[in-house]
Amino acid sequence: MSAELTGVTQEFEKGTFTLFPGLCKGCGLCIAKCRSKALEWANVLGVYGTPAVIANENCITCGVCQLACPDCAITVERK
Amino acid sequence: MSAELTGVTQEFEKGTFTLFPGLCKGCGLCIAKCRSKALEWANVLGVYGTPAVIANENCITCGVCQLACPDCAITVERK
Amino acid sequence: MSVQPTMPKSWRVDTKPHKFCPGCGHGLVLKALGQAIDELDIQDRVVFGCDIGCSLLAWDFFNVDTVQTHHGRTNPVMTGIKRANPDLICIGYMGDGGGYAIGSQHLVNAATRNERITAILVNNAQYGMTGGQMAPTTLPGMKTETTPYGRDVDSTGYPCQGPEMVAAITREGAYVARASVARPVPLKNYIKRAIENQMSGNGFSFVECLSTCPTNWRTNNVETINFVEKEMTKYYNVGEIKVPDPKEPLGIKTSIKVPTGGIG
Amino acid sequence: MSVQPTMPKSWRVDTKPHKFCPGCGHGLVLKALGQAIDELDIQDRVVFGCDIGCSLLAWDFFNVDTVQTHHGRTNPVMTGIKRANPDLICIGYMGDGGGYAIGSQHLVNAATRNERITAILVNNAQYGMTGGQMAPTTLPGMKTETTPYGRDVDSTGYPCQGPEMVAAITREGAYVARASVARPVPLKNYIKRAIENQMSGNGFSFVECLSTCPTNWRTNNVETINFVEKEMTKYYNVGEIKVPDPKEPLGIKTSIKVPTGGIG
Amino acid sequence: MSEKPIQGERRAFLTGNEVVAWAAVASEAEIMFGYPITPQNEIMHYWTRMAPKFNKRFLQTEDEISAGFTTNGGVLAGLKAFTATSGPGNTLMQEPISMAEMMRLPIVTIVQQRGGPSSATVIYSQQEVNLTTHGGNGEGLRIVYSTATHQELFDYTIKAFNTAWKYRFPTFVLGDGYQAKMREPLTIYDPEVRGIEMVPAYKFVGKPGKPGVDRPPTQLRNIFNMEEELFEELGEQFADFEKISPQIAECEQFGCENAEIVVTAHGIVARAAKSAVKDLRERGLKVGYFRPITLRPLPVKELRDTFSRAQKVLVAESANGQFDQLLKYAAYGITTEMVPLFKPGVGINSEDIYDKVMTMLAS
Amino acid sequence: MSEKPIQGERRAFLTGNEVVAWAAVASEAEIMFGYPITPQNEIMHYWTRMAPKFNKRFLQTEDEISAGFTTNGGVLAGLKAFTATSGPGNTLMQEPISMAEMMRLPIVTIVQQRGGPSSATVIYSQQEVNLTTHGGNGEGLRIVYSTATHQELFDYTIKAFNTAWKYRFPTFVLGDGYQAKMREPLTIYDPEVRGIEMVPAYKFVGKPGKPGVDRPPTQLRNIFNMEEELFEELGEQFADFEKISPQIAECEQFGCENAEIVVTAHGIVARAAKSAVKDLRERGLKVGYFRPITLRPLPVKELRDTFSRAQKVLVAESANGQFDQLLKYAAYGITTEMVPLFKPGVGINSEDIYDKVMTMLAS
Amino acid sequence: MSKVIKIAMAGEGGQGVQSVAEIIAAAANDEGKECLYIPNFGVEQRGGVSIAFVQISDEAIGAPKFNTGDIVVALSERAVARTLQYVGPQTTFVYDASLNVSAEDLPKNAKRILEIPAVEISKNELSPRVFNIIIMGAVVGATGVISVEGAKLAIEKQLGAKFEKQPKLRELNFSAIDRGIDLVTKAG
Amino acid sequence: MSKVIKIAMAGEGGQGVQSVAEIIAAAANDEGKECLYIPNFGVEQRGGVSIAFVQISDEAIGAPKFNTGDIVVALSERAVARTLQYVGPQTTFVYDASLNVSAEDLPKNAKRILEIPAVEISKNELSPRVFNIIIMGAVVGATGVISVEGAKLAIEKQLGAKFEKQPKLRELNFSAIDRGIDLVTKAG
Ligand SMILES: Cc1ncc(C[n+]2csc(CCOP(=O)(O)OP(=O)(O)O)c2C)c(N)n1
Ligand SMILES: Cc1ncc(C[n+]2csc(CCOP(=O)(O)OP(=O)(O)O)c2C)c(N)n1
Ligand code: SF4
Ligand code: SF4
Ligand code: SF4
Ligand code: SF4
Ligand code: SF4
Ligand code: SF4
Ligand SMILES: [Mg+2]
Ligand SMILES: [Mg+2]
Fold this sequence. Notes:
The complex is a heterooctamer, with 2 copies of chain A, 2 copies of chain C, 2 copies of chain E and 2 copies of chain G. By secondary structure, chain C is α/β, with parallel strands linked by helices. Helix content of chain C is about 35%, strand content about 15%. Chain C has a single domain, classed as 3-Layer(aba) Sandwich (Rossmann fold). Chain C has 9 helices and 9 strands. Chain C is globular, with a radius of gyration of 19 Å. By secondary structure, chain G is of the alpha/beta class. Chain G has a 6-stranded mixed β-sheet with strand order 2-3-1-4-5-6. The interface of E and G includes residues 276 and 279 of E.
C-alpha cells in the first residue's frame, strides 16, 4: 500500500464520512451494522474489484460502521 | 504362577486369615491399614525375597487388610 | 481345594503376582476394576486399553482383550474401537502424565465429543514409569526428579484438576468422579458406575483414582498411606462430581437448523 | 494531509489491505488487539505469535516482532519465548481448531502452569483456513464440510466451552473472558486486560473471541452478523469469566513441605 | 449390507480426492478417521457426503495423532479403517503408525504430499517420500504405493486395503496435492466385476467367546522388557517383509532394453517422464522409462537390471533427492551415472525432462 | 553472570546423561525444555539439580511437541536452549524441528536412542538414525553428531551449540541408551581453557528499538503462498548447507590405507569396531576402521576414498540398515562389497565384529 | 510431441476462470477425450491471482502443468504479469481489451496476441454475469478443442439447475459462448 | 586382545549388584584405570534379574557389554540361568552356595566354577546387609583388578556419610571385603 491512501470523504451535518476504496473489500458488514440505513453499495470498486460503499443523507456520523469494518476502510470524524 | 497357590492360614475366633507368600511383595500396606495392630512382618519370605506378613492374636478378621492389599495376597474369611 | 486368593474372576491368574511394585496403587485400582467387571458380568465384551506409563504393566493383567497403546494415546485407541464396534465396552487405563499432560488433547476432546468410553486415570502425583518426574498433578512443594527442590507453584502452577475440567466441558450424559485407593469400596463403585454409564449409552465417563507410588515417593508403608489419605486430599476432592441427570434427555439426535448458508 | 484511515498505530500500513477475506472477523480482533497495544504503548515489547489457521495471514500484520508458528503450537512457542525473556509480552493468536483441537494439550497445560502469556483465540465455529470443516466449536445442526448434513451432537458432542474449561483449571492470577467481534469495545477492553494481566505478572490470560467467517459460512453481510450475534451466543456466553482476585496473594513462592521421602 | 456403491463400472471425471473416497467405499472400507489438512480435505468431504447412503462412518478427531490412533482402534475392532493426511500431519501420524508397525495393524493411510519442511505450502511436493517410506523411530516396515494417475489412485487404493489386510503391514497410497486437486477421467468399478477379490477384515479384539474360558484373550503389546525380546519380534517381522516383498513390489518400464539414458521418476512426475520419453523415442532417441510403483518395498531386481544396462539414469523428483536416495541404496554397486533433476516443492513438466535429456545427450 | 560451572578441567566418572548436563552448562546453555522419556531422563534430573546454582532455567512441558516448540521459542528469544528425547518422543519432536528447519533456528537436541518402532524398549538401539538425520516432512537440513565415548558426548555437546549458533541449522547429538546410562571416565572442562570460543547467542525477537520505527520488525514465517516462493527459500538453504558441509563433516579412521576389509560403524558400535580392528591388526590382519562422526552431513569425500580402496566393507549397526543406507547413498558408484552386521535394538560387541571379520577373511 | 492442447487461464478471484476451465475440461471428457484440469491454490482464500491449467488430447496426458501453453488467457493486469511465463512461440495470448496494459506489459514472444472486448460486450450487450462464458467461447474458438455443442452441453450440465429457474439465463450463456467464439475467429 | 577385565554380576532386585558394580568401577577409575560400568534395565522397576557389566583396563574400552566375561557372578537361581550366556572357556563363574541349583543348571564350559558361602557368612558371621560387599570382595579377589585399598577407599567414598553415623558399619564392610577376597583366593 502506498504510504498515503486516498479516501472519498462525504460531509454531513455533524461530521464527515470517509471511505478508502483501496481498503474496502465490499463485505457489507458496515451496511448491515448501520442502524440508520445510511450505507449503500457504491459505484466505486474496492480493492477486490467488488463494489465499495457510500453513505447517504441518513448518516448521523455515529461511527458504528467504522467500528464494524474489519479493514479500517471507513473513517468517521465528528465536527 | 501355578494354578493353585499355597496359603498360610491362621485361625481366629471369628474367622481365618490366609496369607499367600507367593503373592506378597512385602509392601506393608496391610500392616499400616490394620487398625487392630494385628499384623507383623513374618519370617516367611514373599515373592521378592522380602518378608511377608503374619497376623497375631489381635486379629478380628475384619478384612481391611484384604481390601488394602494390592496383590490379593490376603484372604480373610469369616465363619 | 485349600483357601485360594480372592482375586477378581476377570484377573488372569497365571500372570500373578503382577508386575507392579510393592505397595503400588495400580494393583488396587485394577482390583476394583476387576470386581466391577465381574459384577457387571462383561468379561467377554470389555476391551481394556493400557497406556504407556506403569499402566503398561497391565497388558496381560486381565482375562479380557487388551491393547497396550502409546503414552497418552489410550483414549483415541479406545475411541476408535468403540466407534467401530459399539457393542464392545471400552475401558482406557492411564496415568496422570498420560491423561493430563501428553494426552490431554485426547481427554478434552473425547469428553467434549461425549465419546462412549470409560477412562480410568491413576493419579500418583508424578511419572512412575520413568522414575518419578513432576506431573501436572504433583503437589506443591513435593520433591520429584525434575523438581528436586520441591514443586514451585509460582513457576509450574498448581495441581491439575482433571475431573473438574472434564465436568466443565461435558453436558448431559457424562459421568465424572474422583476416587482413592484409600477407599476401595467407593473406588469400585465409581468405576462400576462409570462403566454402566458407557453401557447405557449415556456418554463419556471418567474416574480419576488417587493412588500410591512408594517406589518414587520413597515412602514406607505408613508414609505411603498418609500421603494418599492426607496430603493428596488437600488438593483433590474425592467423590462423584458429575452424574448423568436422569431427567435430561440423553442421546438426542439433533435436528437443529442453523441459518448459515451452509455447504451445498 | 488528507483524512487517513484510523488504523491502530501498531498496524503495519504497508501490508494493508490485509490478507483476510471480506467480512472476516480476524480483522476486527486484530484491530482491537492493535488498539490495546497502542493504548498500553508496548509495541516494542510485544512478541506476536500466530498459529497456522487463518491467523497465519497475520504474520506481517503488525509493526511488532511476529512469529508464525505451527497449527496449534502458538502457546508453546510463546511460552518458550516468555520463559527465556520475561520482559517480553507474549501474545499468542490462534483459531478454535488450533486452540481447542490440535493444540488443546498446550492450552490446558499452559493454563494449569499459569504461564504468563496471553492467548487470544478466534472462535469462528469451524476451520476457516482449510475450507470450513467442523471444529469443536461448531454449533449443533450447523453444516460444515465434514458435517454436510449438520453437526449431530449425539455423535460429535456439543460446542466446546473453552474459557469455562480454562477457568476450571486455573487458580488465582488467571484472566479469562469471552468477547465477540459484534461488540468491538468490550472486545478491545478484554484483550487489553488480558495483556495487562500478563504485564503485572499475575498469570495466564485467555480471551476467546466470537468471530465471523462469511467465506465458509456462506453468509451474506446480514446473515453473517446475525450468526455471530444471535446463533453463536445461544451456546457461548459473552463476558468476563475469571478476573484475578486482588485479595488473593499472587505469585507466591511456595515453601510447602510435603512428607514424601522425596528424592535425594 | 447396503447396496454396492459402484455398480459394474463407469467412466468418471473426478478430482483425485474424490477418486480416493470412491475407491475407499469400493474397497469396503467402513470407517474413516481424519483431521483436516490441505490438500487432502476433500477426501473427508466426499466420504462424509457418501456416508449415510452407504452406511459408512466418519470421525473427525482432535489432531492427526488421534486420527492415527483411532484408525488403529478401528482395525483392532475388525473394520477396514483408513485415514488421510499430508505434510506436518504426516509427521505427527508417524507416532500412531509406529504402533501399527509393531502390532502389524492393517491400517491404510492416504498421503497427499504438500510442500515441506514445516507448514511450507499447502500445494504440492514429493518431499514426503522419506517420511512415508521410513516413518518414525524404527525401521519403517510398511508398504507404499506411489500413484501417477487417477486410474491408479483408484486401483491402488483398492489394492492398499487388500495388501494391508493380507500381509498386515501398514499400507500407504502416496499421492500429492496435484493429484488431489486435479480432475481427469478414469473408470471406477466394483472390484468384483474386475475379478478382484477383497480380502475380508477380521477382528483383533472382541472375537466371540469369553476370554480365558472359550479362547485366550487377545493381548497386544508394543513394549518389551528386554532387548532380546524385541530383537526376536523384529526378526520375524523382517523375515515376513523380506518374503512378501517380491510379491508386492511393482514397476512400470519401457524402452529400457537398449536405452542410453533411462529416465526414472515416481508418482505424478512419472507422467512427465513418460510423455517426455515417448516424445524422445518418437524422435528416434534411445531413451527408456523406468518407474517404481511401490517405493517400499522397491522393485529391486528390475531396478538393478535396468540401471545396470543404462549408460546414464536421469532421476526426476519434486524433492531434493529423497527418491534418489531410495534408488541409490537399492542400486548400490552399480556404476551407472545418476543425473539429478530435483525441484523440491514444485512441479516437473514434460518439457523439463525433455530438455534435460537433450542436454545430457548433447554432452 | 554466575561463576563458571567448570573451573579449568578435571577428570570425572559420570553417566552419559550427567555428561550431557555438564556439557550443556559448560556451553552456556541457559534453558532446557523437556519431557520425560527413558533413557534420557537423567539429563533433566541433573540439569534441574544444577539449575539454581548456575542460574539456569528448566521447564517440563506437557509433551515432546511442546518441548520442541518451547525450545524454538527459547532460541527465538535469544537464549541457548536445548531439549533431549528418545524413541517415540523423537518422532513427535520432528514436528517442532521442522519449524526450526524452515526458520533456521539454532536449537540443540540430544537424542538417546532406544528400541523402535513404537515404544519397543526403553533401553538401546541405533534405530533413530533415519529419523534424526532426515526428520519429518521435508529434506532434513540438520547436523547430526553421533558420539561414541563420554569424552565425545561432552566435546560434541559443546560443539553442537557452537555449530547451531554459527550455522543456524538444528543440531543433534545422537547418543543411545547405553551411552546414557553407562559410566566411564572423561575430562570435563571449561571450553575457554581449551581455547574453544563459544559462539554467542543472539536475539531473533525482542531486539532493542521500536519495530517499524527504529528497526524493521522481525517477522518469521514458515508457510508460503506459492510453490515458487518455497522453492526459492529452499534453494538458499540447500546452498548454505552444501557450502558448510565440508567444514562440518568429521570422521575418524585408521588402517584403511591398505586394508582388505574396512569395518565401519557409528556411535557406540564404533567402539566395538575400533577395539576389534585393533585386535585384528595386532594379529597382522589387513583390517581398517572408518567411522563417520557426523551422520549429517556425512564426510562423503573421505568415505568414498576409503571405501573405494577397500575390498570389502563391513557395516555394523544396531539397526536394520539405517546407517547402511546413508553410507550406500554417499558411496553410490563404488563397487566395493558392503557386508551387513545388523542387530536392530541390541548391542554389538567387539567379539561380534572380530568374529565376523574372521569369517569374511576366511571366505 | 503428442498432440495436447494446453490452456492456461488466469484472473482475479471473482472472475470465474476456474469454473470456465472446469466446464471446458468436463466438455472434453464428455466428448471422450483425455483431459486434465488443475487449479492453482495457496493459503490465501481470496486476493491472489487464480490460474487454471487445462490440457486436452486424444492420448494420455503427461504432467498436470506445463511450461508453455497453446493458449494463455489473462483477465486482469496482475494476471498478465503472472502468465507471461507460460507464453512461448507457439502461444496464442488472449487478454481483455479493458485492461490497463501497455505493449511492454504484454508478452514479446507469443505467436499471436489477441485483445478481446469481453468485458465491454458482457456489460453492454449481454450481462456482466456471463463475462467468463465469453472467455470460454474465446478459448473454444481459438483451440477448436471441443465442439460448440459440447461446450453448450457442458454448460447445461453445470448450470442446468439454475436454468430451470431462470430460463433466460440459458440463452444468455449460449449467446455468450457464441460471441466468444466469434471474437477469436474473427480476430483470427 | 587388549587386556580388559570383564565382569558380569547378576542378582535379584534387592541384592545390590548394581551398587557393588558401581563401587568397583569407581575404585578402578580412582586408580586411574579406564573402566566402564553399565547396568541393565527394562520397563519393570522391580521383579526382573538385575545385571551389571563392568570392564576395567589400562587402555580405552570397547563396547559397553561383552559376550563372555572373565568373571561372572550369579546371586540367585534366575541369575544363574540368565548369566550362562556370558560364560566361556576363560570365565570364572561364581555363585552362592545357598542357591538351589544342581550341576545341570551350572555352566558347562567355564574355566572354573566357584561356589562361595557368602549368604551364610553374611548371615552368621557379619550381617545380611553386607552380603553384597562380600561378593565385591570375591570379585576383587578373583580379578585383582583393583587393590584392596582402592576397594576400601571406594566404599568409604560411597558410604562415608553412613559410616559417620554408624562407625561400626565401616568395620563391618571392610571385614566383608576381606572375607570375600579370602573366599576366592583360598578356593583358588
Ligand atoms: C511419546 C512418549 N513420550 C514419553 C514417553 C516416556 N514415558 C513413558 S511412561 C511416562 C510417564 C508415565 O507417567 P504416568 O502417565 O503418570 O503413569 P504412571 O507411570 O505414573 O502410572 C513417560 C513420560 C513415552 N513412552 N512416549
Ligand atoms: C499438523 C497440522 N495439521 C493440520 C493442518 C491443517 N490446518 C491448517 S489451518 C487448520 C484449521 C484452522 O482452523 P482454526 O484453527 O479454527 O483457524 P481459522 O482458520 O478458523 O481461523 C488446519 C486443520 C496443519 N497445518 N498442521
Ligand atoms: S465493512 Fe469495510 S470493507 Fe466491508 S464493505 Fe464496509 S467499508 Fe468495505
Ligand atoms: S456513521 Fe453511523 S450512520 Fe453513518 S454510515 Fe456509519 S453507521 Fe451509518
Ligand atoms: S499388603 Fe499384601 S503384598 Fe503388601 S505386605 Fe500386606 S500382604 Fe504383602
Ligand atoms: S483382618 Fe482386620 S484385624 Fe485382621 S489383620 Fe486384617 S485388618 Fe487386621
Ligand atoms: S513405579 Fe510407582 S506407579 Fe509404577 S509400579 Fe512402581 S509403585 Fe507403581
Ligand atoms: S476463510 Fe473465514 S476465517 Fe479465514 S480469512 Fe476467510 S473469512 Fe476469515
Ligand atoms: Mg503418574
Ligand atoms: Mg476456526
